[in-house]
DNA sequence: TCTATTGTTCCTAAATTCCGAACTAACGAA
DNA sequence: TTCGTTAGTTCGGAATTTAGGAACAATAGA
């Protein structure tokens, strides 16, 4: 298993951050990691916003967040501990992360919480494979 | 020619904004439109950050910015006038746009201005087509 | 050992992006 | 009117990126 790659803060780009956070699942993951005071393991996110996320996809999402410089991952035993790099990013790009997380909150607050029984109908149809 | 589509401000999403601005050419375009006091035509951006942008690509970039709700385009005669929708977005997502534009400035300031003679070597190699 | 748990890698299909070529639309001149 | 120019769009196909199932690797406990 390959060691985890984390960019130095000076190599972190706005483009990479915005791209990483332009995915609804990834912002949701990041918002929760950034908002928590203890590190989160990947498996805490096997469902995100009522939607199941396959673990291979989840792994890719975490890789994207790590390589954008948004989180730091550390393997501890069988699981991974993920923590935000907010402080570093704040020094490099003041106000960026909080504005994005805030906007995400505004948007989440704007749409009513999905009713459990109606949720299935709103879910994106699964893609069928060969 | 199809009429231009502009989302209502309430339909504008953080994800769409971040995705639109996660492209280096598009942030550069948007930063210039947002920073100018007069509207800008598309053809002003046939070269962006010393790099030529094919006009079909440019057209797609403007479409992406419009449909993300970041700019408003208006056809006047043969050309298009593009203006930012910063005020509306600021009301919906306070601080978001300015943080991103600021971050983009920080990043641009960080890298030294490319020397004209050396610029060609740093350009991304063009993809070869069939 | 064997088994369970957590996460990664591989592989292929689907989606997205890029950009040259062909096109449309507005304008001015003859 | 028709021709030519300019500004931008659309089309089509190749390249790139993404999604997720299956197989795998690594750790821990029994």
What is the CA-CA span between the terminal residues of chain A? 29 Å
Helix and strand sequence of chain A = HHEEHEEHHH
Might you state the CATH topology name of chain A? Arc Repressor Mutant, subunit A
Biggest sheet of chain A, in brief?
2 strands, antiparallel
Shape of chain A: globular
**Strand segment tally of chain A:** 4
Number of domains of chain A: 1
Q: What is the average of the pLDDT values of chain A?
A: 89
Please give the structural blueprint.
The structure is a homodimer of 130-residue chains.
Chain A: H1 14-20, H2 24-35, E1 47-48, E2 51-52, H3 55-67, E3 71-76, E4 79-84, H4 86-92, H5 96-110, H6 119-122
Antiparallel strand pairs in A: 1-2, 3-4
The structure holds a DNA duplex (30 and 30 nucleotides).
Task: Please characterize this protein's 3D structure.
The structure is a homodimer of 130-residue chains. Chain A is of the alpha+beta class. Chain A has one domain: Winged helix-like DNA-binding domain superfamily/Winged helix DNA-binding domain (Arc Repressor Mutant, subunit A), CATH 1.10.10. Chain A has six helices and four strands, in the order ααββαββααα. Chain A has helices at residues 14-20, 24-35, 55-67, 86-92, 96-110, 119-122, and strands at 47-48, 51-52, 71-76, 79-84. In chain A, the strands form two sheets. A two-stranded antiparallel sheet of chain A has the order 1-2. The first copy, chain A, has a two-stranded antiparallel sheet with strand order 3-4. In chain A, strand 1 (47-48) and strand 2 (51-52) form a beta hairpin. The longest helix of chain A is centred in the last third of the chain and has 15 residues, at 96-110. The first copy, chain A, is globular. Mean pLDDT of chain A is 89; it is low at 116-130. The A-B interface holds A 10, 13-19, 21-24, 27, 92-96, 98-100, 102-104, 106-107, 110 and B 10, 13-19, 21-24, 27, 92-96, 98-100, 102-104, 106-107, 110. Chain A binds a DNA duplex (30 and 30 nucleotides) through residues 1-2, 41-43, 54-60, 62-63, 75, 77-80, 126-130.
């Amino acid at each position: 298993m390959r060691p985890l790659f984390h960019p130095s803060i000076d190599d972190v780009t706005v483009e990479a951050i915005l791209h990483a956070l332009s995915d609804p699942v990834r912002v949701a993951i990041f918002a929760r990691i950034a908002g928590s005071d203890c590190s989160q393991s990947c498996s805490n996110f096997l469902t995100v916003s009522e939607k199941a996320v396959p673990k291979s996809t989840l792994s890719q999402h975490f890789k994207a967040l790590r390589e954008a410089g948004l989180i730091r991952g550390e393997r501890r035993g069988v699981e991974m501990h993920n923590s935000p790099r907010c402080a570093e990013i704040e020094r490099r790009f003041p106000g960026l992360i909080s504005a994005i997380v805030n906007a995400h909150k505004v948007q989440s607050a704007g749409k009513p919480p999905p009713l459990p029984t109606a949720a299935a109908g709103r879910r994106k149809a699964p893609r069928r494979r060969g």
